Amino acid sequence: MAAADDVWCRETVPRVMELVSPRLPQRDACALLAVSPWCYRVLVANPKLWEVLDLREMKNPGDRLISALSLVRYRHLKVLNLEFAQDIEDRHFIHLKEMSGISLEDLEFLNLNACQKISDKGIEAVTSLCPNLRGLSIYWIVGLSDSSIGHITKNCKQILDLNLSGCKNISDKGMRLIANNYQGLKKLNITRCVKLTDDGFQEVLRKCSSLESLNLYALSSFTDKVYKEIGSLANLTFLDLCGSQNLTDDGLACISRCGGLTYLNLTWCICVTDVGVVAIAQGCRSLELLSLFGIVGVTDACLEALSKSCSHSLTTLDVNGCIGIKRRSRDDLIKLFPLLSCFKVHS
């Protein structure tokens, strides 16, 4: 029996832990290290387990990060999540940069969302460590400036996904740096980057022609100069224009040239009428989600156009606040849009 128990502890349990651990949250997988010396050895030797480091919302994230990156098992880290790690500071990244043997060359995605104590200096330090980064999210770090964009474009040449949402001090200068360095950019989120103007963002649209996802939520200063340029993005599938108060039917007609669009948010685009939505219906026949929330200038005519062109793709339609569109029964809606699973209409 003793021999059987020994085999169970040394071989069976560690093997089971190795099979189970990839399906667990990383924090739980780390806890398994303490089960036994045999589990520790088996799990540490599995490189797939240590490609992600998740310090989201953790206390003392800076010290934890430095300690983790000092371990051999994190040498090939691919994903680092520091979202809402509010105590992370510039000094932690600067310390990592100065440490010998620390490299993040395999890192592909870095999430610094809402790390408010990070400044341009911190961005310079951390991006210098990860030259092969492909995705960077710095959502709502309001103190960052165009200098951060300069550091990012200098240090990370392969960025495909960039989230600058809430970075209110980024200006047209930053947009020009993005345009000149990331022609292959796939995803860009500039929600609430309120200093941007048509001139700077048009350069991005002209040079980053591979864009597939574009989030312009709460940018009310852009005009049809920008929206007409969006129509040249042949690969665009996701477009959020919520609050684009200067978007007109002419601009929307140009956007309708993006035939691959599956997601289009036109919430509070108050200048839009049936004319623009009909153009979208005719040009974007793969739409799965469309929000017309709060647009009083649309009527049942646009629903009829959508039912003719998008009836076999549209699953979500929001016409809440569209007083020109009459209420319909569930059965009537299904006749128009057989795949519809979510329909929001005004009371």
Detailed description of the structure:
With 347 residues, the protein is of the alpha/beta class. Helices cover 38% and strands 11% of the residues. The chain is built from 14 helices and 12 strands. It has helices at 2-20, 26-31, 37-44, 61-69, 90-98, 120-129, 146-155, 172-181, 198-207, 224-230, 249-255, 274-283, 300-309, 330-336; strands at residues 52-54, 79-81, 109-111, 135-137, 161-163, 187-189, 213-215, 238-240, 263-265, 289-291, 316-319, 342-345. Helix 5 runs parallel beside helix 6 (120-129), helix 10 runs parallel beside helix 11 (249-255) and helix 12 (274-283) runs parallel beside helix 13 (300-309). The chain is globular. The protein starts with a helix and ends with a strand. The model is unreliable at 1-5 (pLDDT under 50).
In short:
The protein has 347 residues and is α/β, with parallel strands linked by helices. It has 14 helices and 12 strands.
